# Entry
Amino acid sequence: MITIEENSQNQTIPKLPPKIFTSKWLQTIRGIVSPISFLEETQRRYGDILLSEFTNFPPQLVISNVAAIQEVLTADPQLFDSGSGNNIIQPLVGANSLILLDGDHHFQQRKLLMPPFHGERMRAYGQLIRDITGQVTSQWTVGQTFVARPRMQDISLQVILRAVFGLKEGERYQQIKEILTAMLDTFNSPLSAVFLFFKSLQRDLGAWSPWGKFLRRRQQLDELIYQEIREHRSQPESLGEDILSLLLSARDENGQAMTDLELRDELMTMLFAGHETTAIALAWALYWVHYLPEVREKLLQELKSIDVVNADPTVITQLPYLNTVCSETLRIYPVAFFCLPRILKAPMQFMGYDLPKGMMLSICIYLTHHRPDIYPEPERFRPERFLERQFSPYEFLPFGGGNRRCIGAAFALFEMKLVLATILSSYSLELLEKVPLKPVRRGIVFAPNGGVRLMVKEKF
Ligand code: HEM
# Structure
């Protein structure tokens, strides 16, 4: 593959992808505040492999070309780093988080953290997920209105607290729940998300300043997490199946156990990555199901064919229409618009371009999921498309792929299906505003604007 061009002086000039012709500053602001129009416009104008530049970030390739996605996700992972590209979430998860690690250390930590979110260990959470859903929704009364996203977050946070700490209801559990929710709410609007993107804004100007408030909440949460670590450590005989117990028993190749700081960072990572994402996906699913009566009707028919309360969880998770509703939910407005960046460790020839060391390759999940050549009428919510065609892992990738693929993908889908089935078979709900909803930024993820307001019509 020859990709070096020669100019009139016979000097070679590297061939780079088309570059967005706007200032870095404007690209940054548009990318943070109105990413959908920014992404769609630039893709239309420059194509499906384009070069974008954000203030404080290395140049990045925005990729929505399926062959290029395949090339990135099947390349030798040693070619890329990712950790340093995720620095913006370091204030939340700490420097020892899986998301910020690279190389062998990343590989080892992934191996350790994957099993609890798969197979039998995952299925063991089936009844718990239904119980927590039942308990959170038991407070709903006919005529009551509620916002779906925070209610779904109540459920997913309780589930992940159980999986991460083995924590059951109690004072510490309640405190962790409240502080973590408040802490994530710091970044709940596109404007407040700028604090993550600009280090210069991360100043503690007192308890009432946004960053000061965030730091104080983080400190409170850290204290609770360290208490939990100390308690687990002091009772080795009662270590359970939870992730903290697992990490406490782990030893590296030199026989060293993880330090408290390393443990804290990994636990925060699981809490952070493992609940808001699933809650947002659930809020979207509830929106679509109640926005489109024919989808709701079809799903209810399918759910009627089984006993949702007592069925083996795998019977529920294998329901074909429920599966397509979850897939289409994650396709149309993926919770994460981008995969984690892959940063070139050396110059690389890629899709006919000569890319320099340090360039970030950013696979854009949102744009890929909206390609009309793969998904005809991409703006239409149509679960059937997943029955008509099988999409490749480079066409449908709500959980990313390759060596950084989401470790909670199976768990998130399992939880989504059980929560949805439990709610829909116990309540008849109605959407309060039957209007098209668009995603808005919440920190680094994207959630339905307004959170999806629903009303309880009937309790079965
Ligand atoms: C609907 C819910 C979720 C969505 C849409 C989602 C999406 C993603 C995406 C797109 C990535 C980046 C993958 C890549 O760059 O290739 C990722 C990474 C990750 N996710 Fe999820 N996720 C969800 C739920 C969860 C859950 C429940 C957990 C709990 C364990 C989790 C933990 C992680 C972690 C730790 C990573 C980083 C993996 C690494 O760096 O190796 N996620 N997720």
